[in-house]
């Protein structure tokens, strides 16, 4: 069975062996973050919608989980914001009732957590991985480029309410963009917000692959250490750095194999991301990351046509 909504299992530095469940169309999101590794948001929205039928998603889950695979988590994530799908609660309830042996994780940008209905739907998850990159409006706008009805305070309020209602684990991620949210004033604001939210852990991240905007760079590890020390000072909340230490040209063998396969395809003819995903049998956001790697080396060309954006090898 070919899967439209499932990807992986993938080995994650935070979640171990995780089966991804993507329930939102490509790049439907409430934010347009400059660091996003899956390219820019094409549909900026805060309107929830039943993008796909619950039955289509649960059918794929039944097929995959019928063999009782060893998984650390089933994770709602992908190339958009999962909470935008109004069927999320039904999907969570289905997995919990049919496959209670599996833990559920939700990766979210926190923008819809101020909605009581969204919070109610996700309470059965075992782990929440929400984000908060900025507290000041200026930094929030520069980094996250939100829908015009959102503010950083909306995210904080939603996270505070989630912590009050939710008894599971919350690992709060802060993504550092050098030159924007790495100065002392913003870090102190984030520290105050963390004290209000009371997550179980704070995770500091930075750029690993090319982001949506070329000017975004990874933070120096020593700078991340300094930020960690500030956030930990006089606090009982653990803070850890999850950003990889950057080594030029370091690519795992599996990634190199995929890059070679993609290169071979686009050397012969042009493809859309979706066509490449089908040909390589991987998720479309993994294709985006591979294409960005080739773009950094100036090896790939993107051409906009009536039927979409096509990618080909630069001769």
CATH superfamily (homologous) name of the largest domain: Aldolase class I
The helix/strand series, from N terminus to C terminus, equals: EEEEHEHEHEHHEHEHEHHHEE
CATH architecture group name of the largest domain: Alpha-Beta Barrel
What is the number of E strands? 12
- Rounded to the nearest angstrom, the radius of gyration is 19 Å
**SS field, number of helical segments:** 10
Terminal CA distance: 37 Å
Biggest β-sheet: count, sense, barrel? 8 strands, mixed
CATH fold topology of the largest domain: TIM Barrel
Strand order of the largest sheet: 1-2-5-6-7-8-9-10
Share of residues in strands: 15-25%
Task: Report the mean per-residue pLDDT as an integer.
Answer: 88
Task: Compute the number of structural domains.
Answer: 2
* Bulk shape: globular
CATH class of the largest domain: Alpha Beta
Give the low-confidence spans.
246-253
Report what the structure shows:
The structure is a single chain. This protein is α/β, with parallel strands linked by helices and 315 residues long. It has two domains: 6-241, Aldolase class I (TIM Barrel, Alpha-Beta Barrel), CATH 3.20.20.70; 253-313, Winged helix-like DNA-binding domain superfamily/Winged helix DNA-binding domain (Arc Repressor Mutant, subunit A, Orthogonal Bundle), CATH 1.10.10. The chain is 37% helix and 18% strand. The strands form three sheets. An eight-stranded mixed sheet has the order 1-2-5-6-7-8-9-10. It is globular and about 60 Å long.
């Amino acid at each position: 069975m070919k899967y439209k909504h499932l990807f992986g299992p993938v080995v994650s530095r935070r979640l171990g062996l995780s089966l991804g469940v993507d329930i939102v169309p490509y790049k439907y999101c409430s934010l347009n973050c400059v660091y996003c590794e899956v390219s820019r948001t094409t549909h900026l929205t805060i309107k929830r919608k039943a993008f796909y039928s619950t039955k289509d998603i649960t059918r794929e889950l039944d097929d995959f989980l019928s063999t009782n695979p060893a998984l650390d988590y089933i994770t709602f994530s992908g190339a958009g914001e999962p909470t935008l799908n109004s069927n999320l609660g039904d999907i969570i309830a289905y997995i919990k009732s049919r496959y209670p042996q599996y833990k559920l994780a939700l990766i979210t940008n926190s923008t819809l957590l101020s909605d009581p209905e969204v919070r109610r739907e996700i309470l059965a998850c075992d782990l929440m991985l929400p984000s908060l990159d900025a507290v000041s409006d200026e930094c929030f706008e520069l980094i996250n480029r939100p829908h015009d009805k959102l503010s950083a305070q909306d995210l904080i309020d939603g996270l505070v309410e989630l912590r009050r209602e939710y008894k599971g684990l919350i690992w709060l991620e802060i993504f550092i963009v050098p030159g924007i949210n790495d100065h002392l004033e913003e870090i102190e604001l984030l520290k105050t917000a963390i004290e209000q939210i009371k997550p179980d852990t704070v995770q500091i991240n930075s750029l690993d692959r090319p982001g949506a905007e070329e000017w975004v760079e990874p933070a120096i590890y020593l700078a991340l250490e300094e930020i960690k020390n500030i956030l930990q000072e006089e606090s009982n909340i653990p803070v850890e750095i999850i950003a990889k230490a950057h080594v030029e040209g370091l690519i795992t063998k599996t990634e190199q194999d995929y890059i070679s396969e993609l290169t071979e395809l686009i050397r012969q003819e042009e493809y859309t991301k979706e066509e490449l995903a089908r040909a390589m049998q991987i998720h479309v956001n993994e294709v985006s990351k591979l294409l960005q790697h080739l773009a950094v080396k100036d090896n790939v060309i993107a051409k906009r046509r009536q039927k979409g954006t096509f990618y080909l090898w630069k001769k």
